[in-house]
Design a protein that fits this description.
- Its main location: membrane.
- It is found in: Membrane.
- The protein has 12 helices and 2 strands, in the order αααααββααααααα.
- The chain is mainly alpha-helical.
- It has a single domain, classed as A middle domain of Talin 1 (Up-down Bundle), CATH 1.20.1420.
- Strands 1-2 form a two-stranded antiparallel sheet.
- A hairpin with a 2-residue loop joins strand 1 and strand 2.
- The longest helix has 33 residues.
- It starts with a helix and ends with a helix.
Length: 323
């Protein structure tokens, strides 16, 4: 067990380092192209930092035949992402970042909230069905993700301009590919190691996926969040978390597409229900934080973040007690 935990730690470090390097490449790409900031932050950066979830979820399902680990990974990553956003908000409470955040992220988070409801309904519905081997729930998720892409594209800044960069475009592409390969393989081995930890502990794939795999694959988001808050780029800091969560839901639909034996929703363990409810609760509170007016009182400002942190710790305690 000690060896497995050491492997998990080393692989997690590799995931963080490679994700940071890829994020730097995306930032350089932003400087050398005319793509708008919303498109870069909401789609490219979110997609890059969610690459570990993509690899680990597909490999957990197709190679390990363990869809519950994939569900635990995605749902656990999403709940942990909002948790670290709440912690970061309190740690940098003097900045009051939500008082200086635009409302462009609200639509994305509302769509994520709707997807939580779809997943919760699909766990207990006998009428959702599927088209071929792909569940109707996955199709709905794909449609909602496409709608979000259109909304972000419509809000793209048409006046964005190119800046000079110290890195040539060919070298930038080479670095991106190299670190992407490192990230793919490290993420793949993390899913295998996490599956072995789940078997060794007997706690359950859902909780192990949420804690070990979900946390490990959320480390890039946590690193980016801290860096962006320090740079006072509050919009991008929140947008990366919100965009990553929605991208993660798209990964569930993509995983369902790759799982040829049937829909992963039909064989998902209802033990994931608590995780869905926790994520839904966090998402609702985050929506409130995004739409509310500017708050001057520190206690009132901090209260929603404290609620999110309390909900997340409740999930940990409840899962350990049930395990």
């Amino acid at each position: 067990m000690g060896v497995l935990l050491l492997q998990y730690l080393v692989l997690s470090i590799i995931v963080v380092v490679s994700s940071i390097r890829i994020s730097s490449c995306v930032d350089e790409l932003d400087k050398q192209t005319k793509m708008g900031g919303a498109l870069i932050g909401g789609i490219l950066l979110a997609g890059v930092t969610s690459l570990p979830e993509l690899i680990t979820s597909i490999s957990s399902t197709t190679m390990l035949n363990n869809p519950d680990l994939a569900f635990g990974n995605i749902l656990g990553s999403n709940t942990f992402n909002i948790f670290i956003l709440a912690v970061g908000n309190l740690f940098f409470i003097k900045a009051m970042l939500f008082n200086h955040t635009g409302k462009s992220n609200t639509k994305t988070n509302i769509i994520s909230t709707v997807i939580y409801l779809i997943i919760l309904f699909s766990f207990y519905s006998l009428t959702m069905g599927r088209i071929g081997h792909v569940g109707i729930s996955s199709i709905f998720i794909g449609i909602l993700y496409y709608i979000n892409l259109r909304l972000i594209s419509d809000e793209e800044d048409a006046n964005s301009s190119c800046d000079q960069s110290c890195c040539s475009l060919p070298l930038l592409i080479f670095q991106f590919i190299f670190w992407a390969i490192v990230l793919v393989f490290s993420s793949l081995f993390i899913s295998i190691t996490t599956d072995k930890i789940a078997q060794s502990t007997g706690i359950g794939s859902s909780f192990i996926g949420a804690m070990f795999l979900g946390v490990a694959t959320s480390l890039p988001e946590m690193t980016s969040l801290i860096s962006l808050i320090r740079l006072k780029n509050y919009d991008l800091a929140v947008g990366n978390i919100v965009g990553s969560n929605l991208f993660n839901f798209a990964i569930i639909a993509l995983t369902d597409l790759f799982y040829l034996s049937g829909s992963i929703f039909e064989i998902a363990d209802t033990s994931n229900t608590l995780l869905v409810i926790v994520g839904l609760s966090e998402s609702i509170i985050l929506t409130y934080m995004l739409v509310r007016k500017e708050v001057k009182n520190l206690i009132l400002y901090a209260l929603p973040s404290l609620m999110i942190i309390g909900i997340y710790f409740y999930y940990i305690v409840a899962s350990l007690n049930n395990g």
